[in-house]
Amino acid sequence: MRYLLCSCVPALLLLTSCEEEPTNVATEQGIEQGTQSVRTNIRLAKRNAQNEFEEGTEFTRAPDHKGQIMPAVYQNEGPAWENENIAFRMYWDERNGIDIHGKKVSDMVLDTVGLDRNNYHEMSDWGMDVLKAGNSLGAGSIALMVDGKVYRIGDARQEKVRITEETADRSAFHLDYDGLEIAGRTIDLDWVISIEAGTHDYDATVTATGLTGGEELVVGIVNLHSDTLYTTEKGDRFVAYTHGPQAELDHYLGMAISVDRDQFIDHGELAPDAQPVSSTYIVRAKLTDGEPTGYRFTAGWAPGHPEFERREAFEEVIR
Fold it and tell me: What would be one Pfam family of this protein (predicted)?
């Protein structure tokens, strides 16, 4: 977030305390809406020589940073993004998964979530990490399918991330994967993720060059704790979603993928023993060299929005 800089370096301290708690808290009716004007945020911070997370706008991942590294190189293990309703984070390594931070407050919280002193796997006043992703694609991450075989995105010749927009009502960042070696092809892939205020979702577009034919985009929803994929149509969009007590602590969670009908190919499932991606419901979409393919991922966590205990209420907010 560019509006308030919270650092443990005294010279940069613009807040009264890095430990300051959010002021808008959840009630029995869900998130209590505050009066803050900033309703979107991206947190992109890397551990520095002083062992503190230093915020930046652009990073290039080190060539030897392939698998998970602990202590984390990046706060939240990669870029994290939020609006007043929901938050997400990416495992920015060869896992290339996306996770969900359920929110019980409408404040922007990601600047302090994921610091060494905090444990986002436990319920806090602001919320918690709600998803177990395992070897899946998690909350809307992507893979490529070539001639029926799935390939992970995440280990390229060079990977970059940069924030391209961060305003009160909309934020976006850009991921570059240059030199992906997949099925005899060398592919450059651009993945743009954006989030707007007032929604329960993020939007993404994927553009790949170096395609030779037979490639498809795969978007996933983890199904470690779900046995049903619901499908429907909303206007000119195909929707696939899950709903039930599938979040950590058995809270109700809905997750959905929507794509334009003219880009939709099919949906399916990757088995628990599949490789390199497992336990995932997938939506397959058309991928044309040099042209963007878009999708939207929606998440609704009941502790922040109790109406999402009902499947019908979650389906209503899917766009």
Answer: DUF4861
